[in-house]
Structures are given as structure tokens and as C-alpha cells.
């Protein structure tokens, strides 16, 4: 029994830990695809960088292919607007929580990153932000609010300024009807030639040309409809406004009495949707471009997402499948040019980004080198192919280029900022994605930029339920479908479930939802042929079976033309037409195995006939599996009784464990979590034998038990140790493993004529009936058996035949290794019993050492339903590392993981994005790029040295800064005045007591001459200054500021006197005593004079004194803050 304990109670040695660091290293490297839920767009014309913000607070910056940066806000919030500070590598974001953030591209530890450096929260101070505008100077950000005011943010200090453009001042000269409530600020547009002037557009249609230098409104423009946006002509003589009734209006910058051109409804006269944004671009020697979003007729095309491009007689309505977020143009001209001369239109939609070449005759789109919409149709399966041969790669590239010939512009990609530092990949890697519409797309996964190469459409060979789409004969508006995102599938049966590509034989197998399996071969020329489907009945021996699902797909009749590339050769149709759940094919043998929920079959695609079929259905479930995934035969009482039994059993076992701990529990510490962040090495796995959970055995009557989960074709020892056999392994949901032996013709020449035989050799039933998800045979040295043609092409060594072969059976609950051919247990690892997790995916990976490229280890990677990935050595199943990779709640992400042979992996981070990560210390692919900023591009940061030195001086020498002295002086003055009021009230009834009080103070001063008494004298000195402040507060606030300054200077100078007095007392006590006595006498005289003056003042104005003091204190505080 000791062999079952292997991998349980071991400790990793120091040598092994060192070796693990050379082999394994987990890190999330990069993302591929299109950002999920985009909400904002920005463009830096100087650095040629594009920024996209998302609704969850993510910001991505893109340059040339491979140049990508990612930044996140500290608090998750929707990014509403983005603004590049041109040429500075800095970016301002405005979020929906009324906050502004400054991001910078900085280099840290040799790596460039996008990081948040400053933020400014406006909550509580302003109303909601409606729009922002960054002038060309880049010094201030203009912030429009729903209250109608415009606030200014100082970009350098990233703080709000005192300068506010109040709505009341702006609309002083407008008609009375619009003075009542112009509405929120809807648009702010800077004059293209005079940066001091801006057009302010309000919600109700009012627009004002405002001079920010003279603080005056030059012209007022009254629109009859609600305003949506404003755009200047480059000449600065006119501008255009768009409105919610689907019209746009041209206004003269000098004449505001009426529009220069009458309101134009492009798609009227019937009611139209709002034109949400308009751009007006000038062209040298040609017609201007007018580009706007929306404006479609409400009755006919209210559901359309459009961007209209007009230039002279040319007019196109770009029709998008998803909602348009924002758009802009890339121009040849800059701010100093006479014309805009736009050459590219960039449109960001919710599900894709599209670039249109405005210089081409037909305004063709650009082919995306990255930022592709991976989910143009929902992704249903994924496969990775490592090290594609060069000839196959070239053929795929050629075929892909021919597919898109004439559909895209020939111009180079216009977004080319930054520099990609990643070297070209030494090998070509493919990522294949199967989609809901029956297509398979080939992606270049060799680098950071995931580029689309080629597409196979299986729907072209089948007759769809909906037939061919109708031809749209509508001529107006002139729609043109753009973009690749198309979430609508004509027929759900077309969805791709499994993909297998053999790069060495250049063959491909695609399996679908309706039992269709298509075998493709690569052709260099166009072919015309007629296709035929070969039916294989899996349940032929079950007469009582009734299929209640969908029908199988029908092939198109007649000859079909196929372009160069992958061409269908053989089509296998499984009956009943259920979704294919497992697939395996061996190109050297010419055999293909496929499984469904009813069983599996072996097909000879060379002779185009079935070799064998096996039904795995339980006789009791023949009626249930056809139309329901859940067994209906279990009674409610029985299931409820079993649930309570499990609860009672669990409680009793827990109480036993709590009362009598085992030796392992008392002696060894609890196993620490090996959870990881995105980067870094895992902590070493130190495992003790855990207390195993009680795992309930699955019922044999489970209707889903018949589903085939894995298939495996391999050559190994099944009958005896001397003879190798061709074998087929099949694992089901009920924990059953079927092992078939296959007889192939001995002579290859007879392969096309001599029949292939297959018979059941062995059958294994797992105890707990856990689903079998993977099977792998290891040779005598513990290496996985090579793939077809790998040995012939020197990609793998011949399998070792001297030692015993072993097979790893991976179920959802445990891994178990058996020795072949005896099937004697070698070792096992119980995952569910020890940790409660279930296995979701397993892959064999070759890890190469970073120190010695000649040293490598074949290991098994295991993904659980908790999102954890563990690495095991084989065949002894010793766990080396565990990493938290995916959140356990992300079920789609866990189910979409695909591993590569070298230790990398992909999973769907969102429906449109792949997250790439690596488990290998050697094979790491991440973005390495930089941005060359011009010399002096960024302004120097505001100097903070004086404040820091003052604070340091206060801490070290005990000195107080002037600002703090001023604050203390104000507090002291307020306290003194309040005390004088109380004194005045007391002295009204006793006018004859001041002399006595004065003599008392005098005698007290003579008897108690100390430093504290001098401080009291200083406080009394402030009374005179405060009296002056009270007298002048109502007349002018400037006098108050001057008086506060005088008081502060008096405090500072007197404080210096105290310090000098202290030093004098230390050196010569007699001199210090005389100095203090003289200072005290002066203080007494000043105090008496100030008291008499204060009495007179408060007697004359007693009723209003308190109110004046309160208001004065507030003004002093405000003026001090502003200073």
C-alpha cells in the first residue's frame, strides 16, 4: 500500500527547490483582443498613440503592433472621457464618479508602464460633469457641468483653479427666453486660430462665443433644437452644430443673427434620431469632410448604429453591428497647417474598432494587425498549435490574403507610435478559435500582437434553415456594412465544438454541434468538387432509442468551388446528430475517433467508412438522453433522503476529527496556501497526508454518464510486454474506460484496400464513477508518446520500449497511474478527497531549464474548478507548485483554458479578450516596448522645496512657518476680541474700577516678570491690530488682508524679541531682567491704550459688533487660504 502514498507526505529538498526555480515561474504576461466594454477614446497626434478607456476603469494605450500599455484606476469607475497631453506621454481621464486622473507613461526598472500619478476628486464641490475640453496649450482642462458653469483644472498642479466661467456672466447678452435656464454645458470647442476663444454650447440650443482673455461674450447663437455637439471649421470663420432632431447647422463666427446655412436634416423630412457628434474637416483643393454619428430616420432605421461620411458628391453610411462609442480623424495637417487633410477615420464601437481609409476611392477599411474582435461570433472552442512548419505557414498566409483581397486598403497601419522591443519569434504558433456561426479562425500567436490570418467557413457547405440572406435593394440612405462583429448565427447547429490540426500532415478536423465532423486537407489551388456525407449510427444496437433533438445538417447539392487553403475532403455524420464531445485522430494511421453523449465511433477517412461504433448508454436511460440532460427517474424523496444522510455523515465525521486529531494533524503544521498574485514564483509545496473527504459514489443510473469525455489513439503494450498494439482509449462521464485494439494492414500499399479491424481489449471502471477527462501513456522513461510524424521530422525521440509503459487516467477527482500491459496500479493522487476541488483540464507540458537548455522535464499541469493550476511530475505524481490563476467565479474563463506544449496558456478574460500567462521560467512572451518622448516634452513639476524646507525647519528647530503663524494670529485675535466684548459688558456697571485693575496689573507685573508674562504682552499687542480690522471690515476685504499681514509680521517680530530675550537671559541675567521689565512696561501702556479705544468703539456699535466679527473672521480665513 505504500505505493499509493507517493506524492502525499514528501518534502521538497533544497536541490529540488532550486531546480523548480529554473523550470517553473508563473506570471500573467499580456492580453490579446479587444478591450471589454469600451467607453472612451483618445488620440495623440504627436506620439501616434491611441487610448481606449473601459467601463470598469481600465485604460489601454496602443501604438504600432506589439506596443501596448495598460493602466487601471485605483478605484473602479467608468471612464467617460480621455485626453492626451500631446507629445508628453500623459493622459487625463474623467470618470463617472466626478473624478479626474492623470496617467503617465514612465520607465521603471527597464520596463515602460502606464501608471496613475495624480488625481482630483470633485465630489461635493461641483455638480455632475457633462463635458470637458483640453485646449491646445494643455495648461488647463475646461470642465463643463450640468449646472451650466465651466471650471478650470490646472494640469500642472492637477488642482482646481479659482477661475470659473459662470453661466450668469456668459448669458448676460442673450435673449430673455434663454436666460431662464440654458441648461447644462453640452459642448466646449476651442477656436482653431485663437486659443483664447471658445464656443460654449448649452443643452437647450444656446451657443456663445466666449473670449477667455477679456472675459466677454463676443457673439450669441440661438439654436431652435437641443444641442448635441459643436465642431469648428479649420479656417475659424465658421462652425457647425448638431442637434437632437437629426439636423446640423452652420454658423458664422462673426454674424450671430442667423445661421450661415439653413438647418440640414440629411435623412429627413421625417423625424430622425439625434446627431450625437459631428466633425468638420477641411481638405486642400477639395471638398470638406462632414462626418457625424446618428441622424437616422426613427421609423425605418432607429435600430441602426451608423457613422455618416460625406465629401462632395460622395456619401456613405457606415453601418455597425454594435453601438458607436466615439470617433475621430487622423490628419496630415496639424494646428499650424492651413488645412486638416484627414486621411483616416477611426470609429470605436462597443464590440470592435474600425479604421477607414479616407484617401482610397471607396473608403476601404484597414486590416487590423491587432485589436481584433475575437468574438465576431461567440467563441465556442480553442486550440493551440506549436511550431508550425514554414511551408504550411506560408500557405495559410497566402490563402488568407486571397480571402481578403480587395476588401481592405493597401495602406500601412496608421497607428504606429512607440517601438516594439520584442524580437521576432523563432517559431510560428497558431491559435485556432471555433465560433458559433460554424467558422474557424486562424490567429498568429507568435508575438504580442494577435493578428488574424485565415478563416474557414463550414456554413458554406451546408444548407441553412434561414437560407440565403435577402439582397437589400434600398438605395437611401446609402448603407455600407463595416466591421467584422456579427453576433447573430443563422443556425445553432453550425457551432464548432472541437478542432484538431496536424501541422506535419497539413490536415484539419472540425467537429460541430449536430454531429458533423469535417476532415480538411491543405490545397494550393482552387478546387471544384461535390461533397458526400458518410453516416455512422452509434445507437444502431439499441432499437428502443428515440432521438428528440435537432435534425442533422444537410449538405449543399452539386459541385462547390473552394479557394486555395483548407478544403473539405471527407464528412462524417454521427447519428443521432448530437454535439461532438470528444475527438482524436491519428494521421499516420488514417483513423478518426469521435464521441458524443451516446457513445463513440472509429472512422477510417482513407477508405471513408466506419470501423467500429460503441454505444455507452445505460439501458434505463434510452428515453431520457435524447431530450433532457437531467435524469427524471430519481424521485424527490430519494434525493432528499440522500442529502440529509450526507449532512449527518459530514457532521459526525467532523466531530470525530475535532475530538481525536491524527498524528499528522498534531505534529505537522497546516498546509499553507500557495495562492499567487499575477507574477512571482510559487511557494514550495510541502504536503502532508490530508484528512480525506468522504466522496459519494455517483449513481450508475445517471443519464449523463454515457457522455464520452476523452478519446486517445496511441501505440503501446496492451496484450503483453513484447508486442505493441495500436489502441483506442475512451473515457466516459461514468468513470468507464474502454480500451480497443486496432488491426492495421502490415503493408502500407494495402492501406486503401484492406479493411481495418477493431475489438474491445480491456475495460476499466473507476470506483467512484468520476468522469474521465484525460488519458496519457508514458514510455519507459516517463516521456509522453510522440505525436504523429514527430519522430520522422526529428521533432521527438522514438519512445523508449525497454521499460514498462504507464498510463495516466485523469478523472475529475483523482489521478491514477497504471503499469501496462498488466494495468497494475502504480500510484495515485486524490485531489477531491484532500482539497475538495475538481479537475477541469489536464495537459502534458515540457518545461526547459533556464540554466541548461539541454535539460527538460515532462510534467502534467492540472486546472481545477477553483481556478488553481498545479504542476505534477510524472509518473510519480509529485506536486511541485500551485498557482491561483483564475477567479473561481469565472466559470467561462476556467472552461476556456488552453495550454501550449511549452508551458504557456490562454483563457478568455472576457468574451472578446484572451489573457495570456505562462507557467514556464523559460518560455515567457510579454510586451516589451517604449515611447521616445521629445526633449523637454513634459513641463517640470511645480517646485515644492520651500514648503518642504519650512516643514523640516519646524520639525528640527522648533520654528513655525509664516502660514501657521498667520493662522495662529487670526485665532488669537478672534479670542481677544470676544474677551473684550465680555470685558466691555462687565465694565459698563463698574466705570470706576479700571484704575484699580491697572494698578493691580502693574503690581502683578513687577512681582512676576517671566517669559510667560512677555507672551501675554505679545497677545495683548494683537488687540490693536484686530481693532483696526473690525473698523475696516465692512468697507474693503483688501484692508483686512493687509491688516492680517501686519498682525502676522508683528507676531513674527515680537517672537524674535522673545528669542533674543531668552538668549540674553542665559548669557547675562541682569541684562535680561532689565530687557524684560522694559518690554513689560511698554506692553502695559499699549494694553491700556488699546483697552480704552476698544471700550469706545464697542460702546458706540455694541449691537452689530458680534455679526461684524463673525463675517470678518470668515473673510480672513478665505483670504488666508487663497494666499
TrEMBL record:
WD repeats lie at residues 429-444. Residues 658-674, 984-994 have a biased composition (Basic and acidic residues). One of its GO terms (molecular function) is GTPase activator activity. Residues 634-657 have a biased composition (Basic residues). This is Lethal(2) giant larvae protein like protein. One of its GO terms (cellular component) is endomembrane system. It is found in: Cytoplasm; Endomembrane system. Residues 726-922 form the Lethal giant larvae (Lgl)-like C-terminal domain. Pfam families: Lgl_C (PF08596), LLGL (PF08366). It comes from Argiope bruennichi. Signal peptide: none annotated. Residues 266-363 form the Lethal giant larvae homologue domain.
Amino acid at each position: 500500500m505504500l505505493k499509493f502514498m507517493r506524492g502525499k507526505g514528501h518534502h521538497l529538498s533544497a536541490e529540488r527547490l532550486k531546480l523548480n526555480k529554473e523550470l517553473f515561474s508563473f506570471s500573467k504576461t499580456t492580453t490579446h483582443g479587444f478591450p471589454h466594454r469600451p467607453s472612451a477614446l483618445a488620440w495623440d497626434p504627436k506620439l501616434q498613440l491611441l487610448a481606449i478607456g473601459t467601463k470598469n476603469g481600465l485604460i489601454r494605450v496602443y501604438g504600432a503592433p506589439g506596443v501596448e500599455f495598460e493602466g487601471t484606476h485605483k478605484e473602479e469607475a467608468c471612464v467617460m472621457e480621455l485626453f492626451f497631453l500631446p507629445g508628453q506621454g500623459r493622459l487625463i481621464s474623467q470618470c463617472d464618479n466626478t473624478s479626474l486622473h492623470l496617467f503617465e507613461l514612465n520607465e521603471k526598472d527597464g520596463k515602460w508602464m502606464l501608471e496613475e500619478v495624480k488625481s482630483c476628486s470633485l465630489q461635493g464641490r461641483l455638480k455632475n460633469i457633462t463635458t470637458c475640453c483640453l485646449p491646445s496649450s494643455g495648461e488647463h482642462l475646461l470642465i463643463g457641468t450640468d449646472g451650466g458653469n465651466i471650471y478650470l483644472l490646472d494640469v500642472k498642479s492637477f488642482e482646481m483653479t479659482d477661475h470659473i466661467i459662470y453661466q450668469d456672466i456668459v448669458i448676460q447678452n442673450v435673449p430673455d427666453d434663454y436666460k431662464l435656464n440654458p441648461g447644462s454645458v453640452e459642448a466646449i470647442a476651442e477656436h482653431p486660430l485663437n486659443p483664447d476663444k471658445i464656443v460654449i454650447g448649452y443643452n437647450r440650443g444656446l451657443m456663445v462665443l466666449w473670449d477667455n482673455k477679456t472675459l466677454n461674450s463676443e457673439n450669441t447663437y440661438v439654436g431652435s433644437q437641443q444641442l448635441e455637439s459643436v465642431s469648428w471649421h479649420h479656417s475659424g470663420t465658421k462652425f457647425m452644430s448638431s442637434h437632437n432632431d437629426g439636423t446640423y447647422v452652420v454658423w458664422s463666427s462673426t454674424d450671430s443673427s442667423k445661421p450661415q446655412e439653413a438647418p440640414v436634416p440629411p435623412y429627413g423630412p421625417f423625424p430622425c434620431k439625434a446627431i450625437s457628434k459631428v466633425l468638420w474637416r477641411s481638405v486642400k483643393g477639395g471638398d470638406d469632410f462632414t462626418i457625424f454619428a446618428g441622424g437616422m430616420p426613427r421609423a425605418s432605421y432607429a435600430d441602426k448604429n451608423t457613422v455618416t461620411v460625406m465629401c462632395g458628391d460622395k456619401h456613405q453610411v457606415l453601418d455597425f453591428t454594435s453601438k458607436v462609442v466615439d470617433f475621430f480623424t487622423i490628419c496630415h495637417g496639424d494646428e499650424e497647417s492651413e488645412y486638416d487633410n484627414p486621411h483616416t477615420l477611426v470609429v470605436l464601437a462597443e464590440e470592435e474598432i474600425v479604421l477607414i481609409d479616407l484617401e482610397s476611392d471607396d473608403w476601404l477599411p484597414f486590416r487590423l494587425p491587432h485589436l481584433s474582435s475575437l468574438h465576431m461570433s461567440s467563441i465556442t472552442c480553442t486550440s493551440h498549435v506549436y511550431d508550425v512548419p514554414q511551408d504550411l505557414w506560408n500557405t495559410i498566409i497566402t490563402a488568407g490574403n486571397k480571402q481578403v483581397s480587395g476588401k481592405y486598403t493597401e495602406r500601412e497601419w496608421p497607428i504606429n507610435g512607440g517601438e516594439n522591443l520584442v524580437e521576432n519569434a523563432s517559431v510560428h504558433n497558431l491559435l485556432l478559435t471555433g465560433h458559433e456561426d460554424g467558422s474557424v479562425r486562424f490567429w498568429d500567436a507568435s508575438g504580442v500582437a494577435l493578428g488574424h490570418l485565415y478563416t474557414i467557413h463550414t456554413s458554406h457547405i451546408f444548407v441553412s434553415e434561414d437560407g440565403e440572406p435577402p439582397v437589400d435593394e434600398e438605395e437611401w440612405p446609402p448603407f455600407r456594412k463595416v466591421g467584422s462583429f456579427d453576433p447573430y448565427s443563422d443556425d445553432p447547429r453550425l457551432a464548432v465544438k472541437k478542432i484538431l490540426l496536424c501541422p506535419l500532415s497539413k490536415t484539419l478536423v472540425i467537429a460541430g454541434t449536430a454531429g458533423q465532423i469535417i476532415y480538411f486537407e491543405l490545397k494550393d489551388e482552387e478546387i471544384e468538387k461535390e461533397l458526400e456525407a458518410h453516416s455512422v449510427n452509434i445507437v444502431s444496437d439499441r432499437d428502443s432509442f428515440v432521438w428528440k433533438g435537432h435534425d442533422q445538417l444537410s449538405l449543399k447539392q452539386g459541385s462547390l468551388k473552394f479557394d486555395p487553403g483548407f478544403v473539405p475532403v471527407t464528412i462524417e455524420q454521427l447519428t443521432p446528430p448530437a454535439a461532438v464531445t470528444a475527438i482524436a485522430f491519428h494521421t499516420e494511421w488514417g483513423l478518426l475517433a469521435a464521441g458524443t453523449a451516446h457513445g463513440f465511433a472509429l472512422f477510417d477517412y482513407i477508405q471513408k467508412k466506419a470501423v467500429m461504433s460503441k454505444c455507452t448508454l445505460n439501458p434505463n436511460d434510452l428515453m431520457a438522453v435524447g431530450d433532457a440532460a437531467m435524469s427524471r427517474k430519481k424521485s424527490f424523496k430519494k434525493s432528499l433522503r440522500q442529502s440529509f444522510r450526507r449532512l449527518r455523515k459530514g457532521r459526525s465525521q467532523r466531530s470525530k476529527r475535532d475530538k481525536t486529531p491524527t498524528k499528522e494533524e498534531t505534529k505537522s503544521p497546516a498546509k499553507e496556501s500557495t495562492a499567487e498574485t499575477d507574477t512571482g514564483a510559487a511557494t514550495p509545496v510541502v504536503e502532508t497526508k490530508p484528512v480525506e473527504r468522504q466522496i459519494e459514489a455517483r449513481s450508475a443510473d445517471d443519464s449523463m454518464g454515457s457522455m464520452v469525455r476523452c478519446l486517445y489513439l496511441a501505440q503501446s503494450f496492451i496484450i503483453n510486454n513484447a508486442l505493441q498494439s495500436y489502441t483506442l482509449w475512451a473515457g466516459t462521464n461514468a468513470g468507464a474506460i474502454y480500451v480497443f485494439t486496432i488491426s492495421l494492414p502490415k503493408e502500407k500499399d494495402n492501406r486503401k484496400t484492406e479493411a481495418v479491424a477493431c475489438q474491445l481489449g480491456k475495460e476499466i471502471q473507476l470506483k467512484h464513477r468520476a468522469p474521465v477527462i484525460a488519458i496519457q501513456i508514458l514510455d519507459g522513461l516517463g516521456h509522453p508518446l510522440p505525436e504523429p510524424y514527430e519522430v520522422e521530422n526529428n521533432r521527438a525521440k522514438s519512445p523508449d520500449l525497454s521499460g514498462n509503459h504507464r498510463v495516466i487516467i485523469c478523472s475529475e477527482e483523482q489521478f491514477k497511474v497504471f503499469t501496462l500491459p498488466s494495468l497494475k496500479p502504480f500510484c495515485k493522487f486524490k485531489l477531491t478527497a484532500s482539497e475538495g476541488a475538481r479537475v477541469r483540464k489536464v495537459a502534458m507540458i515540457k518545461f526547459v531549464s533556464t540554466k541548461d537548455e539541454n535539460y527538460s522535464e515532462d510534467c502534467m499541469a492540472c486546472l481545477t474548478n477553483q481556478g488553481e493550476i498545479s504542476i505534477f511530475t510524472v509518473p510519480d505524481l509529485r506536486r511541485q507548485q500551485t498557482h491561483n490563476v483564475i477567479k473561481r467565479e469565472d466559470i467561462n474563463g476556467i472552461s476556456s483554458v488552453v495550454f501550449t506544449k511549452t508551458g504557456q496558456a490562454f483563457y478568455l478574460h472576457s468574451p472578446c479578450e484572451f489573457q495570456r500567462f505562462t507557467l514556464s521560467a523559460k518560455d515567457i512572451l510579454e510586451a516589451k516596448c517604449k515611447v521616445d518622448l521629445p526633449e523637454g516634452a513634459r513641463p517640470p513639476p511645480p517646485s515644492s522645496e520651500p514648503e518642504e524646507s519650512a516643514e523640516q525647519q519646524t520639525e528640527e528647530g522648533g520654528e513655525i512657518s509664516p502660514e501657521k503663524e498667520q493662522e495662529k494670529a487670526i485665532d488669537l485675535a478672534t479670542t481677544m476680541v470676544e474677551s473684550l466684548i465680555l470685558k466691555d459688558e462687565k465694565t459698563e456697571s463698574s466705570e470706576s474700577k479700571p484704575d484699580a485693575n491697572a494698578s493691580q496689573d502693574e503690581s502683578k507685573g513687577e512681582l512676576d516678570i517671566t517669559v510667560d508674562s512677555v507672551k501675554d504682552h505679545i497677545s495683548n499687542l494683537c488687540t490693536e491690530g484686530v481693532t483696526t480690522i473690525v473698523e475696516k471690515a465692512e468697507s474693503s476685504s483688501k484692508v483686512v488682508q493687509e491688516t492680517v499681514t501686519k498682525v502676522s509680521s508683528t507676531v513674527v517680530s515680537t517672537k524674535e524679541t522673545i528669542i533674543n530675550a531668552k538668549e540674553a537671559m542665559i548669557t547675562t541675567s541682569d541684562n535680561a531682567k532689565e530687557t524684560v521689565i522694559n518690554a513689560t512696561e511698554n506692553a502695559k501702556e499699549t494694553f491700556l491704550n488699546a483697552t480704552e479705544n476698544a471700550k469706545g468703539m464697542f460702546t458706540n456699535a455694541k449691537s452689530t459688533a458680534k455679526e461684524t466679527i463673525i463675517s470678518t473672521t470668515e473673510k480672513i480665513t478665505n483670504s488666508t487660504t487663497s494666499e
